[in-house]
Amino acid sequence: MSAPASVVDACNQLAVSLYNPALLITLHRDIAEVKGLDGRGLRGSRKQQALRWGIFSLTFSAADAFFNDVLIAPSKGRAIPLNPDKLRTAGQKAGVELFTNSWGVRTRTPGPGSGRSRWVTFEGSAALRSYMSDMKSLRDLLSHGGDPYAATNDSGALWPQVRGNSMTLMGAEGFLQACCDLGSQTLLAFGGTVDELPSWPEPHRSGLSAEKRPGLPLLRSPD
Asked: Helix, strand, coil proportions of the chain in percent (round to 5)?
């Protein structure tokens, strides 16, 4: 079997669109050893931390565009929000099963009892709905000039702080991985094979980020 050419093209475009967010993740790490124009180190500075919002927003927009490219014919229909339930319904109308209980994503969340992050999976419709709802809450706040710390955190994917819930660099990196996983599973749902998947962009990884990622039921490789 093979996925429709339009779906393969959309998946390839998603990989291209995620290239810049991946570069910005690497840049965030690169500038940790750099001083700003004020002579102060950038590690942990608000300048460095601001990159995470841009990384997340670019990633969300790329995934949003991908699903609309796959499910809506050009110049027809209203845009579908990045919502698992709405995308599942749109998929059923197109004769394909999306966001089923077999689906999952890999991302990074705060470890138990600490701020240290870890690779985890959100598997099944309910878990995906919870995770994506929190991500959409954050995106909506950023898009409308709201306080990003006011985002919901029902999935536990964000880092609780005194101000509210924070998206760290590791969380933004995890969301990029999650969107790659969504792209892969969408292509497979349309009848594609693992061999048709694009080469997903990878940021430079080190330390906790370089830990082996868990596997997903529908993807052949654990990485």
From this structure: 50, 10, 40
The Cα 198–Cα 184 span in angstroms is 8
Taking the chain (223 residues) in consecutive chunks of 10 residues, what is each chunk's mean pLDDT?
88 98 88 71 70 94 96 73 94 94 95 75 96 97 94 94 90 96 97 94 77 85 51
Contacts of 133 (CB under 8 A, 6+ apart): 83, 152, 154, 155
pTM beyond cutoff 0.70: yes
Long-range CB pairs of 151-157 (<8 Å, 24+ gap) are: 154/130, 155/122, 155/127, 155/130, 155/131, 156/109, 156/110, 157/107, 157/109, 157/122, 157/131
